[in-house]
């Protein structure tokens, strides 16, 4: 929370690509950063990585939104085409304004991007006349709203066509007089526009798709946040628009954050009957997050990793507070930056080849840092005494070992993610989800500790041992599919083994008729279905299982146990937590406290911290309360020493009265004390203990 | 209408016409003025966000844009009168000029002197001009306190069933005969007349269901004259339409699509109000629950619900006489922010730090209109809120977080 972190904050939220700015950013980064020697290199690495992450997420987001955007585009096209049809039914409907209600979920900050791409797409392919309005930027009067719409519509076209610029400026100048600020102006303007493009002298043409498209491109007005609009204004606006619908092909798109029924709450029937509403539902934000995590975090592509706690913080901010995927990515960005900023060894956090090169360029100081790493110390302790001495004294030897270790780390990541996905496929369909429904939960467990030691894992395995044959085969098949694209040797051999087992399972099918034991399982199962208690069911099933195991095992059961033991061994060899890996500090960002402090601001604690130790913020030399401290801090300290009711008299003696009263009223403003009616010259204390 | 024509010719300074929605007021005015070729200006009061805009439109249609551009930037009534007189002297009227104002009820919200002045505009501008106000409410609600010129009142009664039938029959489908369409309208009115007399709504319904009505005809099963069979065919559809389309829960396009695919998937389409599910972040849910509790529980009872050792206070003990009525009938009550947070912290099972994002969630709940801010925006100190969600909604929310809200509601004790 120092001022240096403030400057970092600026950096975090403005990754500008401009050269000039980058320079200053780099300076910022290098200034006050740990291990200044290789900081430039680290800065470059960091920026490259971030650029990659950013483009990847943008691509991902576009893909996710594609469906809904496409259907919206279709909708607008259809609307504009039916308008020109002159059959009876569409004539009867002509007075309705076609409206798309786009339900986007409550994570409003994420919507900006969606709307941006939507209006871009619309402008490219359907109509040049798109205006998007937000509740907050058009005040709360109808006049402002109309003005804004006109500005957006007419303004956008100005940039398209140079020839028409003058004229558009004239109209805008006219309506800036605010006398002409009405839809009839828009209507006239629209007519001249379309006429022009229809007669179309070749010199003046707009982008070609418009010319090919419908003769009268619709005018689309996007309401980004419908809920935030003043209902009165919205109603009037729609009423006005409906008066012009015959002359002006208007169309609305409502961005709805809560649920479609809000339309009915906002608009009375007389207004909503003027609209012809069609509903579009976008992907829920949790699904969105799942995809982002899947593509961004559960991949070996990015060398930068988050440890369990940081992940936990980011995910809980998402789930508990805002549902905002954008903020989640910002969180990753912050962690990335902090990592490269504070960890000098992060110079090794890059692609394998580059990292190996960088190892060779490490200087003595950096190697010393490696020797101080916790994971490396543990590694040294395991080596023979001779090797230990070498590692701790010989720099060149250490470099070689480091190269090997970095390779190991990359291998670990290569193996970790496919196996994680396998385990997830196996366990995600089990009853009561012992290892979590989402892969991120499993990932978190694996990051924290040895997953195979947890109770949940044991119970999951037990449940897996009860799976029927076809289910198990299907799951194993899916595992094999996941392992297919992996390249590392170990995974390949595992895949071979797995496929081997699958064929054995299938041979089992053909070799002999299904074992009779299965029948005996199913019949008690039917009997058991009457009992609703799941725990009891599980218990009886386990008992049954054990009693059966006491008997002779069928070939299927033998094979099943074999398969599960194989999976178990895979998990044990590949899913160990990253902390156990040597040199994990290079890639893993661990400081969850920093992330939390930056992303989840706590105003009260910072106020208290400021009052307790003002030097932290004022950046003077350290010290306890002294004469140099601001008055309010001293009064705060005084009030901490008092009971519920505080008398003024103590203060009067220490201060000049004016200063004291000012400090007291400041404290009251911050909400620590309030005046009381019980005694005249007393105030009541409002807060107790820490935050 | 005849009667109307006579009144309109005897230049009365102002006429007030009222009648229900879609009873043909503006249509009649429009046609009449067109037919008689009288100079007139039609203005909708919704559209005129400022008085100046209204004046401008009037001047524009009487004297052309030169006159309109003479109006200063924010024109006042006197500016308008001045320019009107000026223009008037240049081009004296041969006939009475008419100003038709639709949705005149909105004039009440404008400046207090506008309505009386408009009513006496004839005297002010010394020209032969008549103001015609069209409204859905009666004149008694208009009359300003200060008193004003009483306009001539005219009432447009609602259409009778027969009249509706004639009007609706007019927009018939070009490819079908008059009788056929009129019999369709007859059936339609038979179903809907008891619930809806709004012409616009009926037209909408007629348009929507006509294709279904014609279906057996196109398949060649029945002849155009066989009304009874057609009636048998269409009646269930109309009944169904009554439930969904009338409230415009289902848009017309969707309705048509549904009619086409109906045989395959019946009732797959849900209306707008069926989608009430809202996904919220975990703490927002609890904030909303806390807000609901704060809105519907009296503040005195907080102690009983949220303190661990509240003792054995029974409901009867603190039932005051005036509180016998259910709080849910009275609607939500405002509560201060402090109380909301206090309840929130006792409702949430884990320890939550009072971070900035908790506070920002409150404000985003306000923007989503799940909460409403009662106190004025300027009041930074202890803002007050109300909870604006329904009982069903909050029950659904609390079910997702395993919170039994009914246990905490005073009304259900």
Main traits of this protein?
heterodimer, A: 691 residues, alpha/beta, 5-stranded parallel beta sheet, 3-stranded antiparallel beta sheet, 65% helix, 6% strand, disordered N terminus, B: 413 residues, ORC5_lid (chain B), nucleotide-binding (chain B), AAA_16 (chain B), ORC5_C (chain B), ATP-binding (chain B)
What's the layout of helices and strands?
The complex is a heterodimer of chains A (691) and B (413).
Chain A: H1 3-13, H2 19-30, H3 39-84, H4 88-92, E1 97-103, H5 108-125, E2 130-133, H6 142-160, H7 165-176, H8 183-199, H9 208-212, E3 219-223, H10 231-244, E4 250-256, H11 261-266, H12 269-272, E5 275-281, H13 285-296, E6 305-306, H14 308-322, H15 325-342, H16 352-360, H17 364-372, H18 374-382, H19 385-393, H20 395-427, H21 439-448, H22 455-464, H23 469-483, H24 489-511, H25 516-528, H26 534-550, H27 555-574, H28 584-587, E7 588-589, H29 592-599, H30 603-612, H31 614-618, H32 631-640, E8 645-647, H33 649-654, H34 657-669, E9 673-675, E10 682-685
Parallel strand pairs in A: 1-4, 1-5, 2-3, 3-4, 6-7
Antiparallel strand pairs in A: 8-10, 9-10
Helix pairs in contact in A: 3-5, 3-13, 3-15, 6-7, 14-15, 14-21, 14-29, 16-20, 19-20, 20-23, 20-27, 23-24, 24-27, 32-34
Chain B: H1 2-9, E1 14-18, H2 25-35, E2 40-44, H3 51-63, H4 65-70, H5 77-90, E3 97-102, H6 114-119, H7 121-125, E4 129-135, E5 152-155, H8 161-170, H9 178-192, H10 199-219, H11 227-244, H12 252-261, H13 282-296, H14 302-306, H15 327-330, E6 335-336, H16 337-347, H17 356-367, E7 371-373, E8 384-387, H18 391-400
Parallel strand pairs in B: 1-4, 1-5, 2-3, 3-4
Antiparallel strand pairs in B: 6-8, 7-8
Helix pairs in contact in B: 3-5, 8-9, 9-10, 9-11, 10-11, 13-16, 13-17
Pfam family, one (chain A): ORC3_N
Subcellular location (chain A): Nucleus
Keywords (chain A): DNA replication, DNA-binding, Nucleus, Phosphoprotein
Task: Explain the overall architecture.
The complex is a heterodimer of chains A (691) and B (413). With 691 residues, chain A is an alpha/beta fold. Chain A is 65% helix and 6% strand. In chain A, the strands form three sheets. A five-stranded parallel sheet of chain A has the order 2-3-4-1-5, with helices on both faces. In chain A, strand 9 and strand 10 (682-685) form a beta hairpin. Chain A is globular and about 85 Å long. The interface between A and B is large, with 65 and 59 residues. Chain A: Residues 1-348 form the Origin recognition complex subunit 3 N-terminal domain. Chain A: Keywords: DNA replication, DNA-binding, Nucleus, Phosphoprotein.
């Amino acid at each position: 929370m120092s001022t240096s972190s403030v400057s970092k904050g600026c950096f975090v939220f403005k990754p500008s690509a401009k050269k000039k700015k980058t320079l200053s950013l780099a300076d910022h980064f290098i200034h006050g950063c740990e291990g200044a020697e290789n900081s430039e290199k680290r800065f470059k690495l960091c920026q490259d990585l971030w650029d990659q992450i950013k483009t990847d997420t943008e691509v991902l987001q576009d893909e996710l939104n594609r469906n809904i955007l496409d259907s919206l585009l279709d909708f607008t096209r259809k609307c504009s085409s039916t308008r020109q049809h002159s059959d009876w039914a569409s004539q009867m409907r002509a007075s309705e304004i076609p409206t798309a209600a786009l339900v986007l979920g409550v994570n409003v900050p994420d919507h900006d991007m969606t709307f941006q791409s939507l209006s871009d797409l619309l402008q490219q392919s359907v109509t040049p006349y798109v205006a998007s309005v937000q509740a907050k930027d058009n005040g709360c009067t109808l006049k402002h709203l109309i003005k804004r719409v006109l500005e957006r519509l007419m303004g956008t076209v100005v940039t398209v066509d140079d020839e028409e610029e003058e004229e558009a400026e004239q109209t805008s100048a006219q309506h800036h007089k605010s006398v002409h600020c009405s839809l009839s102006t828009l209507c006239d303007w629209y007519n001249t526009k379309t006429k022009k493009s229809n007669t179309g002298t070749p010199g003046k043409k707009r982008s070609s798709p418009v010319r090919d498209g419908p003769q009268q491109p619709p005018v689309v007005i996007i309401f980004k946040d419908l809920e935030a609009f003043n209902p009165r204004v919205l109603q009037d606006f729609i009423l006005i628009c409906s008066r012009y619908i015959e002359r002006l092909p208007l169309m609305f798109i409502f961005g709805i954050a809560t649920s479609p029924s809000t339309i009915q709450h906002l608009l009375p029937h007389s207004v909503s009957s003027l609209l012809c509403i069609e509903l579009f539902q976008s992907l829920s934000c949790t699904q969105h997050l799942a995809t982002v995590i899947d593509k961004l975090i559960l991949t070996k592509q990015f060398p930068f990793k988050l440890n369990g706690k940081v992940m936990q913080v980011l995910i809980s901010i998402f789930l508990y507070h805002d549902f905002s995927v954008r903020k989640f990515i910002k969180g990753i960005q912050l962690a990335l930056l902090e990592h490269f900023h504070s960890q000098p060894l992060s110079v090794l956090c890059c692609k394998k080849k580059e990292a190996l090169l960088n190892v060779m360029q490490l200087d003595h100081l950096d190697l010393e840092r490696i020797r101080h790493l916790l994971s490396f110390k543990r590694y040294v302790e395991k080596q023979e005494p001779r090797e230990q001495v070498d590692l701790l004294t010989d720099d060149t030897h250490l470099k070689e070992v480091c190269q090997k270790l970095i390779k190991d780390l990359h291998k670990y990541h290569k193996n970790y993610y496919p196996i994680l996905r396998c385990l997830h496929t196996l366990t995600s369909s089990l009853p009561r989800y012992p290892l979590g429904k989402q892969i991120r939960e499993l990932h978190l467990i694996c990051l924290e500790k040895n997953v195979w030691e947890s109770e949940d894992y044991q119970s999951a395995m037990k449940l897996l041992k009860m799976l029927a044959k076809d289910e198990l085969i299907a799951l194993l098949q899916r595992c094999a599919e996941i392992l297919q694209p992996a390249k590392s040797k170990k995974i390949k051999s595992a895949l071979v083994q797995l496929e081997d087992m699958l064929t054995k399972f299938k041979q089992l099918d053909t070799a002999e008729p299904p074992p009779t034991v299965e029948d005996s399982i199913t019949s008690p199962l039917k009997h058991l279905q009457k009992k609703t208690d799941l725990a009891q069911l599980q218990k009886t099933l386990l008992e049954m299982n054990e009693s059966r195991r006491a008997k002779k095992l069928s070939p299927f059961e033998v094979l099943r146990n074999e398969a599960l033991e194989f999976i178990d061994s895979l998990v044990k060899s590949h899913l160990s937590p990253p902390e156990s890996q040597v040199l994990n500090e290079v890639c893993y960002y661990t400081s969850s406290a920093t992330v939390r402090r930056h992303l989840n601001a706590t105003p009260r604690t910072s106020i208290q911290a400021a009052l307790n130790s003002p030097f932290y913020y004022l950046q003077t030399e350290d010290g306890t309360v002294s004469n140099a401290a601001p008055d309010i801090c001293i009064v705060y300290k005084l009030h901490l020493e008092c009971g519920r009711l505080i008398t003024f008299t103590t203060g009067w003696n220490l201060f000049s009265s004016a200063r004291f009263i000012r400090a007291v009223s400041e404290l009251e403003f911050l909400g620590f004390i309030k005046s009381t009616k019980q005694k005249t010259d007393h105030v009541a204390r409002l807060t107790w203990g820490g935050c | 209408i005849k009667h109307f024509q006579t009144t309109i010719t005897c230049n009365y300074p102002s006429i007030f016409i009222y009648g229900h929605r879609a009873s043909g007021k503006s249509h009649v005015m429009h046609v009449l003025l067109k037919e008689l070729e009288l100079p007139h200006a039609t203005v909708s009061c919704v559209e005129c966000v400022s008085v100046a805009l209204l004046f401008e439109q009037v001047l524009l249609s009487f004297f052309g844009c030169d006159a309109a551009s003479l109006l200063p930037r924010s024109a006042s009534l006197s500016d308008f009168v001045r320019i009107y007189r000026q223009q008037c002297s240049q081009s004296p009227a041969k006939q009475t000029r008419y100003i038709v104002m639709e949705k005149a009820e909105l004039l009440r919200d404008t400046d207090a002197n506008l309505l009386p002045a408009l009513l006496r505009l004839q005297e002010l501008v010394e020209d032969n001009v008549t103001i015609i106000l069209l409204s859905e409410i009666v004149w008694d609600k208009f009359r300003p306190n200060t008193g004003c010129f009483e306009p001539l009142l005219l009432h447009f009664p609602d259409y009778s069933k027969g009249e509706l039938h004639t009007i609706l029959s007019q927009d018939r489908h070009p490819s079908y005969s008059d009788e056929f369409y009129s019999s369709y309208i007859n059936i339609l009115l038979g179903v809907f007349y008891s619930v809806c007399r709004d012409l616009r709504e009926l037209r909408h319904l007629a348009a929507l269901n006509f294709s279904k009505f014609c279906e057996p005809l196109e398949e060649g099963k029945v002849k155009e004259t066989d009304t009874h069979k057609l009636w048998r065919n269409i009646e269930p559809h109309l009944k169904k339409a009554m439930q969904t389309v009338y409230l415009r829960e289902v848009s017309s396009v969707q309705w048509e699509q549904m009619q086409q695919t109906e045989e395959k998937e019946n009732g797959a389409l849900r209306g707008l109000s069926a989608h009430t599910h809202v996904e919220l972040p975990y703490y927002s849910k609890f904030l909303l629950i806390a807000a609901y509790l704060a809105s519907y529980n009296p503040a005195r009872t907080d102690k009983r619900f949220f303190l661990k050792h509240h003792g054995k206070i029974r409901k009867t003990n603190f039932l005051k006489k005036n509180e016998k009525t259910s709080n849910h009938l009275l609607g939500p009550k405002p509560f201060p922010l402090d109380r909301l947070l206090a309840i929130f912290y006792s409702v949430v099972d884990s320890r939550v730090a009072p971070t900035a994002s908790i506070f920002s969630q409150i404000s985003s709940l306000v923007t989503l209109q799940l909460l409403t801010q009662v106190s004025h925006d300027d009041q930074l100190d202890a803002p007050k809120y109300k909870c604006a969600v329904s009982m069903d909604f909050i029950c659904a929310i609390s079910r997702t977080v395993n919170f039994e809200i009914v246990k905490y509601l005073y009304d259900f004790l």
